[in-house]
Here is the input.
Amino acid sequence: MISFKNDYSEGAHPRILKTLMETNLKQEEGYGLDSYSLEAARLIRDRIGREDVDVHFLSGGTQTNLIAISSFLRPHEAAIAAQTGHIFVHEAGAIESTGHKVLAVVTRDGKLAPEQIQPVLDFHTDEHMVKPRLVYLSNPTELGTVYSRQELEDLRSFCDEKGLLLYVDGARLGSALCVPETDLDLGSMAQLTDAFYIGGTKCGALIGEALVIRPPSLRQDFRFYMKQKGALLSKGRLLGIQFLELFRDDLYFELARHANRMAGRLKSAIEGVGFGFLADSPTNQIFPILPDSLIDELKKDFDFYTWSRVDDSHSSIRLVTSWATRQEDVAALIQAIETGRDLR
Amino acid sequence: MISFKNDYSEGAHPRILKTLMETNLKQEEGYGLDSYSLEAARLIRDRIGREDVDVHFLSGGTQTNLIAISSFLRPHEAAIAAQTGHIFVHEAGAIESTGHKVLAVVTRDGKLAPEQIQPVLDFHTDEHMVKPRLVYLSNPTELGTVYSRQELEDLRSFCDEKGLLLYVDGARLGSALCVPETDLDLGSMAQLTDAFYIGGTKCGALIGEALVIRPPSLRQDFRFYMKQKGALLSKGRLLGIQFLELFRDDLYFELARHANRMAGRLKSAIEGVGFGFLADSPTNQIFPILPDSLIDELKKDFDFYTWSRVDDSHSSIRLVTSWATRQEDVAALIQAIETGRDLR
Amino acid sequence: MISFKNDYSEGAHPRILKTLMETNLKQEEGYGLDSYSLEAARLIRDRIGREDVDVHFLSGGTQTNLIAISSFLRPHEAAIAAQTGHIFVHEAGAIESTGHKVLAVVTRDGKLAPEQIQPVLDFHTDEHMVKPRLVYLSNPTELGTVYSRQELEDLRSFCDEKGLLLYVDGARLGSALCVPETDLDLGSMAQLTDAFYIGGTKCGALIGEALVIRPPSLRQDFRFYMKQKGALLSKGRLLGIQFLELFRDDLYFELARHANRMAGRLKSAIEGVGFGFLADSPTNQIFPILPDSLIDELKKDFDFYTWSRVDDSHSSIRLVTSWATRQEDVAALIQAIETGRDLR
Amino acid sequence: MISFKNDYSEGAHPRILKTLMETNLKQEEGYGLDSYSLEAARLIRDRIGREDVDVHFLSGGTQTNLIAISSFLRPHEAAIAAQTGHIFVHEAGAIESTGHKVLAVVTRDGKLAPEQIQPVLDFHTDEHMVKPRLVYLSNPTELGTVYSRQELEDLRSFCDEKGLLLYVDGARLGSALCVPETDLDLGSMAQLTDAFYIGGTKCGALIGEALVIRPPSLRQDFRFYMKQKGALLSKGRLLGIQFLELFRDDLYFELARHANRMAGRLKSAIEGVGFGFLADSPTNQIFPILPDSLIDELKKDFDFYTWSRVDDSHSSIRLVTSWATRQEDVAALIQAIETGRDLR
Here is the structure.
């Protein structure tokens, strides 16, 4: 069984494990104050091109989202997210657990734009309702789509005008920043958002996300929130070493490009066979719409999620590639789809 | 500079890193449902000797404490802890952050006994106060002291009689269960408590604690709480593999015994020189009381915490050993203390 | 200016104020243990016809909803409500503030039925999502519509089958139970729900809601939750005396019937003129759809909310009557509408 | 049975009830925007002598404390209180329920001073602990003692220097501001604190506390917090009318002076008989230390709390007077104590 179920089926890139081994017995400070974490944060600030951001390393996406958002908001303030947004659906109510409502917006492709946010603001008029305060985006979105620089600039202007914070969940940010047509990079992410995170777990690390925060008011006392929510690891070196390795050179983006390329091959082949997609994803998650009988056939040799029913005889599936996806496995899946193209 | 500052200065035991490498490319399920985590849980249940307990792997002590305690309690219920207890002092208000008060009891040696808990129950008489519901112990305590089986049985009986839950923070449980005079083991821990955790981070792992829960009512839906608080790692294999390696044979306890032995050597030597201790610790944390001038001298070559002022010219310090503490470093510290014995 | 804006524009029914005066200097226990509160609870249990329910008096609807729901749910559990439900929209995120997500269901008339709840259950499949656990209804709904006994029985059966709790917000319960066609009464409310509240503030009291809880597990320690959330009034007699007066005889329902009658007159007259309604409400809130020009005209002499835009030239308005609504004011409004019928 | 158990045994001052009746049928805005509430707030601002404060009316002390403190603090910040402080002991964990730890300081007489707060600041050094941020005082304290202007000025300077907020629980503020020797008034309270509340429930009202907030940052969006915690009453007029009546002239302070005078008579008589007190209280709560046999005797005719055991044969009791305490009841209690003076 070959898995295209997600991008966390395997462990870490070998270079990371190697560095873990080499540094293993060096005595270091705890709780993220080790020399590796400090150096990794410096590398990321260098890549961003500014000194006035804080970089914190956390264990996972839900943890990062809940700590960031709950520390940024006052008790009556709410986040706005796409109805497909990870915080709205797939984090077991983590944000609400910290006391904040998530206001959901129906979207076509998982992306938010000012014209979809404005009605939420219009609706929330007084103290009988929550106060919308933070816009939550995922880039790429949960449907694999990505934001352009123009779209992010529009959102930034809108947020500035309305007094909203802009936060980006970058669980797969590497993938978004490596699509050929993108004009976004880490520098523009830091410039255009109040905070965003660079996902490690789904891009070559064993574990770890790097949260970048820009406004001084949001940076204040952030380590308290991390500690209070159980996110300060006593062996914080584990996170620091991984990001150090990923950002020592271009490894992080190399791994993302590989994942995108593998998904791109699948996409081309599936298009070639004549099947469509739920959304137009240039990243490492694609959502082809296939006949149910073909899906059943594929399930014999491949592992993946059936995503949603499209019509009586078709469903969308989710195929995910990663830094570790092998070309031969992609080829095998393409062949299986081409072979089964006439199944109805 | 040689560090006796804590037991998380180094990485993981080499066998753990080796297994991480060997298993790295195997595709596995996410979120703790990988074969390694399942197998590690089975090994721990075997060691405990009962099937009717759940074992969950989490990232750190504060995270484990806050998720366990907040899931066990109803909103008006409180935890009782020693005033030195980690949850009362050193978790940045993590328990209160989930809505629960921690009721502190002054103790001499960091240990709780029924006669210290009874006054707390007597004081909390009605709905104008919180309802004490859970007794939080650390074994070993934050002062390095340990509970005997009889003490734990007395607490269990007391808790049963009063309708209290008994929870043990085992950040350094290996150390407690390896002191020569102990009559406790994992089986009795599971029998005598409602829940406890087996600390990995401070006993050879890179990261990870294994939480053991016995009563069915507390086991129900526990993975929801883990997810909601950001503790379900997508690459849960990271935790599973480590505990698998630690409990595949006796490695976990071997490492704890080494740490205890190294602390024991320090203790004997310091006693030999004539200095006393803040508490009588048989575990890997000891708290000798030294002249301030000697402490200043030692700080030139060794890293450790000054713990508390004892009198005008003496303070207690904390010395911590670990699985990775080298005999030659212990010898060097002993020599330095013996050399400086006459400093006043 | 005559107000049809809400049913809390005036104070309390004069009999209530009279009894407050007469009892004023009698020394009583505090915190809801006064003889009036105990007697009022007994009267309500008598009216319900069962002894195995607890009755608590609280200050307002949002307070009652948040304390009840947060005490009934474990941290990962969620409430299901209509998208128009008061807890979803108009309580400033009170439920989320206690840590629980509210799952919203789009409805036509503000009412929930099993077939609308089932998809919510189908969608929430595992620990990556919240666990739906409580169904929140309002009776009457925020659109003035009411549930029949059959509808409530169907919901009860459904909830039993699915392991869900059924909770009814009865801010205007008197109005719902007094519509001519209803086959529900306080006894059936207690039988068919796990908890519900009898709204006082909007039915003749100055302040106060009576919460009725049936299952022993939900009744346990409830006064702790009230105290912790600031709902135990030291002069609880204020609430007890009011409900005592409302339920000493049939006053509570008399007042509700008056409000319904006044709304009924408005409704008949508006129908007579040929205007329609947003929903078919037999209770004291009606939502006629009027030409904008007529609305502008009416606003010169009457106070009410414009509710929603219906088309380019029409909007719905909300007209609310109360125990204190005067017949001559209703007549004046009818005349104004009839006079302005040709405004377009 | 005559009660000296508390100052909420009776209802409201008759003038308040009279005004409730007279205003009863006037149609008013809801949720604290009625003309009475607006006027009452203006009267209080006039009395304070400054326009730059917000005044909000809430239902009770626990509710006021929890909403104020939780809205003033960020998630990792803690309140400092005397170990006898109402929020530490008698609010069922209300502050912790909003996520904040209360750090308790042992005091002799229920009062805090800078030298007792400084050690708390010294102890909390980094992100592994909560961050002390708000000093909670009660004036009068739970032991009936009061702060002088100098003491409050010292605390204000200390708080300014340390970046702490200063909040005063004034459940019985009238009593504190009416002791003959005081040099504090509402104006100095507003000047020297960040926020404080003027207790109504225990000083002549049926229900109600008036919260005064000075710093603009703490005033922002405060009505959202009130709504979210269930404190915005739809018939907010109930609170406004009461404070309007209490502050229309000097009624509030007249009632407090009466309560103080009644307690003063008891105190003089008890001192005359030769008994001592737990603390030196000039306010309406006194804590005489009496022989247990005398206490038993008094309990036959009078209702009061036995407060604490003092020695084998003596206990302290709490005697509370109120605006409604009758001179003849005070005389009766004095006579009973004088009669029983030789009981041992």
